[in-house]
């Protein structure tokens, strides 16, 4: 009897102990009813950074701000907004850091250009080395 | 071909050691001066986004972004009753309010009861408090946590964002920013 009373007490203890964040964001832990849209939202959420636990995506994170961000993403996708427009909206507010998908900017273009430049150098070096042999034979 | 591969110059023997020393210096620099992990809002210098938050407390107006463009600078404090650093900054906010600074609050993911208890215990410097229950306005402002404090000039432009609690040593700087925002 006592044990049951304690267990029953524990049922109600949770909300009192958790004197913390009470988010009313509707889609933080609820999927969109349309599976196609939910898949769209999911793939966007996996490429957005949680601002509190910065190694995680908002899809993985249990931080309350990530819940707010998930709800924002799902509500907007449910309303028909394009995922990239939502990403752009967040980047406008938080900078490129909020997105895991690399953006081509004035700062990041060397990262994209470097492989092409290295390939070009390798090609020129190889042509000089192997091309010169036949050149000497001529 | 062989003349291309002539003897390396003498100093080249020190090259690996120099590279290692450089690498070590980089590691030490990272250890002793860790990178700043704060995500600051990209909206500093831009207009405050439009929002209209309902009142968080009965008898206290909510926060409409139009209430910020009154020709006088404001502080907009993003806070919550569950946020421990918000307790630390409460005395400093009180000091700013006593200095005549209009402080508007945005309470994030909070409840009326918790908020009332928080303000009763730690003081209440707020003219208006908007309830951002789902955290949407926090995201619209580019705020990545609580507490954060925005200095907004009389035209409603964000001129400065303070991330984290306002400690006693920050009060003078914020007052200066508010004064600059008056012009």
From TrEMBL, chain A:
Per UniProt, the keywords (alphabetical) are:
Cytochrome c-type biogenesis, Heme, Iron, Membrane, Metal-binding, Signal, Transmembrane, Transmembrane helix
InterPro entries from the xrefs?
A: C-type_cytochrome_biogenesis, CcmH/CycL/Ccl2/NrfF_N, CcmH/CycL/NrfF/Ccl2_sf
Report the residue ranges that make up the CcmH/CycL/Ccl2/NrfF N-terminal domain in this protein: 22-128
Listed transmembrane segments: 107-126
Q: Name one GO cellular component term.
A: plasma membrane
- One GO-annotated biological process of the protein: cytochrome complex assembly
Which CDD domains would you find in this protein's record? CcmH_N
Pfam assignment, any one: CcmH
Instruction: Kindly list the GO molecular function terms attached to this UniProt entry.
Output: metal ion binding
Q: Relate the protein's function as given in its record.
A: Possible subunit of a heme lyase.
Its family remark reads: Belongs to the CcmH/CycL/Ccl2/NrfF family.
What protein does this entry describe? Cytochrome c-type biogenesis protein
UniProtKB/TrEMBL annotation, chain B:
Q: Where in the cell is it found?
A: Cell envelope
Keywords, A to Z? Cytochrome c-type biogenesis, Disulfide bond, Membrane, Redox-active center, Transmembrane, Transmembrane helix
Please tell me whether the keyword Transport is annotated for this protein. Answer: no
- The membrane-spanning stretches of this chain are 12-32
Q: Does the keyword Disulfide bond apply?
A: yes
InterPro entries linked to this entry? Periplasmic_diS_OxRdtase_DsbE, Redoxin, Thioredoxin-like_sf, Thioredoxin_CS, Thioredoxin_domain, Thioredoxin_ResA/DsbE_sf
Q: Which PROSITE patterns match?
A: THIOREDOXIN_1, THIOREDOXIN_2
Thioredoxin domain: residues covered: 42-183
Which Gene Ontology terms cover its molecular function? disulfide oxidoreductase activity
Its Gene Ontology cellular component terms are: outer membrane-bounded periplasmic space
Instruction: Tell me, in one coarse class, where this protein mainly resides.
Output: other
Biological process (GO) annotations?
cytochrome complex assembly
Q: Which NCBIfam families match?
A: dsbE (TIGR00385)
Family, according to the entry, reads as follows:
Belongs to the thioredoxin family. DsbE subfamily.
What is the name of the protein in this document?
DsbE family thiol:disulfide interchange protein
Specify the species. Answer: Novosphingobium silvae
């Amino acid at each position: 009897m006592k044990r049951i009373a304690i267990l029953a007490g524990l049922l109600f203890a949770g909300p009192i102990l958790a004197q913390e964040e009470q988010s009313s964001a509707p889609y933080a832990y609820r999927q969109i009813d349309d599976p196609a849209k939910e898949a769209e939202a999911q793939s966007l959420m996996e490429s957005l950074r949680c601002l509190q636990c910065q190694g995680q995506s908002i899809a993985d994170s249990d931080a309350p701000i990530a819940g707010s961000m998930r709800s924002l993403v799902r509500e907007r996708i449910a309303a028909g907004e394009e995922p990239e427009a939502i990403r752009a909206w967040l980047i406008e507010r938080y900078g490129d850091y909020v997105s895991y998908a690399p953006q081509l900017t004035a700062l990041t273009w060397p990262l994209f250009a470097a492989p092409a430049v290295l390939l070009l150098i390798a090609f020129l070096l190889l042509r000089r080395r192997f091309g010169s042999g036949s050149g000497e034979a001529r | 071909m062989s003349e291309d591969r002539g003897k390396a110059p003498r100093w080249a023997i020190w090259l690996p050691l120099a590279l290692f020393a450089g690498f070590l210096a980089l590691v030490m620099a990272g250890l002793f001066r860790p990178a700043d992990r704060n995500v600051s809002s990209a909206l500093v210098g831009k207009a405050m986004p439009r929002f209209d938050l309902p009142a968080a407390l009965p008898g206290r107006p909510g926060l409409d972004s139009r209430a910020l463009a009154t020709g006088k600078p404001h502080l907009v404090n993003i806070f919550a009753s569950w946020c421990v650093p918000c307790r630390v900054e409460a005395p400093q906010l009180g000091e700013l309010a006593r200095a005549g600074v209009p402080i508007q609050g945005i309470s994030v993911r909070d409840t009326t009861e918790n908020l009332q208890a928080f303000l009763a215990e730690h003081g209440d410097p707020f003219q208006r408090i908007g309830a951002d229950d789902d955290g949407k306005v926090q995201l619209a402002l580019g705020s990545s946590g609580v507490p954060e404090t925005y200095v907004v000039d009389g035209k409603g432009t964000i001129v400065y964002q303070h991330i984290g609690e306002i400690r006693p040593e920050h009060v003078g700087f914020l007052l200066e920013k508010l004064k600059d925002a008056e012009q």
